[in-house]
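This part of the workshop introduces the protein records we will be handling. Getting from the letters to the tokens is the skill we practise here. The record below serves as our worked example for the rest of this section.

…
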Amino acid sequence: MPWSLQFAPDGRLFFTERIGDLRVLSNGAVQTAPVYDKRSVTLGGLDGMTGMVIDPDFGTNHRIYVFYCFGKIPNEHCRVERLIESSGTATLDRVLLDFTTLNRDHIGGRLKIGPDNLLYLTTGDQKSLSLSQDPSSLAGKILRMDFDGNAMGAGLANPYVYAMGFRDPEGLAWDSSGALYATDHGPVSNDEVNLIEPGQNYGWPTCIGICNDPRFKNPVKLWQPETAAPSGTTFYNSTVIPQWNGSMLIALLGLTDNTYAHHVHRIQFTQPGSSQIASEEVLFKNQFGRLRDVVQGPDGFVYFSSSNGNGTDVIVRVKPQ
């Protein structure tokens, strides 16, 4: 079940699998041995190896950052680790963040690097709803740190917290203006896309959906009454597929009986950094089942992964007709 996809500067496609490993595809083939293997300590599943991002200076420092959980409740730990990769094998260089979790679900786990050259990590509420509204807790938040693990939050009670009030956010993406957008899973329906501002509160669980409450930021996109279960997201910036240039692409999950999700959702905002949607489009509906992540490749093509399990999952490449 491939969870995070990212291309290295040398053209290799790295991806995590929830079972607990980091893999790489090179020259059209997946390397047999994992690049990094934590299957002996992680139980896999929703808190297996999920988040992954490649250092902007990977060509010289060979750093990759991963997120996974290990151990068992109530002593399960989740970690951000910095790895050093060489010839298809990675070793642990440094643990950047380590925290315990109360539940194996609602972990979040999306790890990205922003235009400010800082690491961002999404965390879920661990099915302990009050934690999302606790500014001292790491749960139900977007966290920010530097490449050594030093806290770079937004001045809230916990120094790592950049924004708060989320249920289970699994997508982060910056547009061409540098504005940050995040996806979040609602309780049943009420899934969201949010325009993220530092130090702001996005409401969960006090506010569900659009509340017009000055204490909380309203979502810029709300799925209601349908259930979308939005996961990984990216902004497409290329003229290779010109009709998608500037669009936000979102991988939608949904349970197996969901009649709405199971597609890539395209959103065109009126301009970069906007909260106003100009148009939307449903892509590849019910062709690949549940979808987990979507990225732009160095060739200008779009790549996305399915998340169905039982050894049936795929990474799909989309190119112009």
The chain has a mean pLDDT of 97. The chain has one helix and 24 strands.
